[in-house]
Protein 1
Amino acid sequence: MTYALITIVTIAIIVLVLWLIWYQITKPWQHLPTPKNSIPFIGHIFPLDRTKIIQFINKQFKDTGKRTVCVWLLWNPLVISIDVKLFEEVLKSTQYISKGNIYDFLKEWLGTGLLISDGKKWKTRRRMLTPAFHFDILKSNFDIINRHAKTFIETLMIQTKINEKPIEFFEITKGFSLNTLLESAMGITFGQSESKLNAMLSSYTYSVDILTSAVQERFVRPWLWSPFIYRNFTADGKEYFKQLIIANTFIRNVIDDRIETLQMEGNDNKRLLFLDILLDAYQKKEIDIEGIMEEVHTFMFEGHDTVSSSIAWAVYCIGRDKRVQGKIFEEINSISEEGFCMESLTQLKYTECVIKESLRLHPPVPVILRTMDTDVEINNLKIPANTDTAFHLLVMQRDESIWKDAAQFKPERFVDDSFSKRNPFTYLPFSAGPRNCIGQRYAMMELKIVLFHLLKTFRLEATQEESELKQHIAVIHRADDGLLIKCIKRKEKEN
Ligand code: HEM
């Protein structure tokens, strides 16, 4: 009896002490709306199936009825917000430029390149690399992008001739976005056969798939957070590090190829290419080889995966809406293929609205993270310093209280003046403020060029309902099973 009593009292004391410890740990965040289903020291259990995460996050907002919630992953708080005032306060600030700790999962791969670095390193690199995206450089890229867009159309033509089945667009657009980036930003000519180059590109895109999926998988599986355990005791971790070597080799080849070309051609051939800026800085001892590697990794990833996702989503939206497709075709058809040039892009006004609307519904980068170095107080909610804070663009840009008929694809909302009058922080596919997307004008240009050729050549049909799509956010917004698009060659008289 006494023994049983001692056991009960001991357990009660342990539980009380644990509860007190948990209470102390969570105290600074207790005033924040917290979804109920949290277990002390374990936190909220995120679904392991990546296609269920968007619904899970939506549910947390619905259940609490709040625009900012705090969830727990073990003993780590994560604030998730769709509060436009919070977005504005943090994103426009030059003080809050540090990315969240979740980005640590990307560091083995991207190092601390421009996307992840902060402080002085970020400022210096941003200043160094901005000239690569000036208007004159973009203009000089028009012909390169245009040529690759035409090659992409030829690939689609061949595919549609082989069989009439719908084509999966996330995959097929990767070749276009990668080739374009390699030539325009890295000056790559690869003195290799086309088949060898294609094999290299597809093994690189496969590696990127594994590396991005791993970030999302580790995020919801705390037992995989330790790099030591992940690397040595899991099959996925071993595969991850194998793919990392392949991606590293590819990036190293890109850099070596450009060095070789410059040595052969001399400096006369130099444009202000992204990679040439880095190689110049290397000669001036402003950056080391590791720095070049992390920046080339960062730009190769950010510059191709986002673009291929945005093309695929735009084509999906157009392929679902005959009215929009008719209007965009009318605009595109008013410009001849022979006369298509940089200046034509300003005429593609409706096309631009279509792209913007598709980026609203399907932002390729669906979540932005920050960790603020001071407390931030908005709408009577204080977010303690150093809390990982996720700005959920995908949910915010589909919020009915912000966007009328939010779920509908309506490019016209970007035509009228009401868009220019709205708070710019309600629409953030390229983020905003000092850490906005450095490549956004390049991306918009690429999107317009590729849509011009696609719609001139094909009628597009997307048969999957949006509710059928298994959408997920493995760093980039995609759908498992892909986006299947039927490309039907237009008849001569349509043009
Ligand atoms: C439609 C295509 C694109 C979308 C939607 C997009 C979106 C974004 C977003 C939302 C951010 C902010 C991320 C954050 O704060 O965590 C970002 C940053 C960045 N993007 Fe893009 N991006 C696109 C294309 C590109 C391209 C083509 C490049 C390069 C060629 C690029 C390079 C970068 C880099 C380097 C950063 C980090 C900038 C910094 O922190 O200073 N992006 N992008």
Note: The domain at 82-216+237-464+473-494 is CATH 1.10.630.10 (Cytochrome p450).
Protein 2
Amino acid sequence: MQYSQTLLDDIRAAVDIVDLVSRFVNLRKAGSHWKGLCPFHAEKTPSFTVNPQKGIFHCFGCGVGGDAFGFVMRQDRLSFPEAVRALAKSAGIERTCASFASASSAELTSPLFIRCSSLMNSPSASAVLSLTTPPAATKGPASRCVS
Ligand SMILES: [Zn+2]
């Protein structure tokens, strides 16, 4: 399954990795980074860091690291496509994409639709479109449409 790089970038940009990780890890600010006890190995001294500028995490104790997708995959034991969908959903992008299911032909040529199409055309697109759970994100996806 292929996702467009733009869509993945959109999702990454919409997801606050500190916010995401802090649902599972008690993070404390340490300079420009955030630190906490690694959720992936047992430790008493925090060696798990999150870099919000780069949108990545890294553990100096067990060596795991990655971006928001990698974190969700490890934390929730998801496949990459599942992690993409989970983050798209929490970022509100999925709902934006789903709204294109009833889009007019003018809207179908918009850049956002083209970005969404890689999400929509996936084998799980029908599952995505049938989801009725409102996204948790408070940032309105509408503002993302205009760009
Ligand atoms: Zn670790």
Note: DSSP finds eight helices and five strands in the chain.
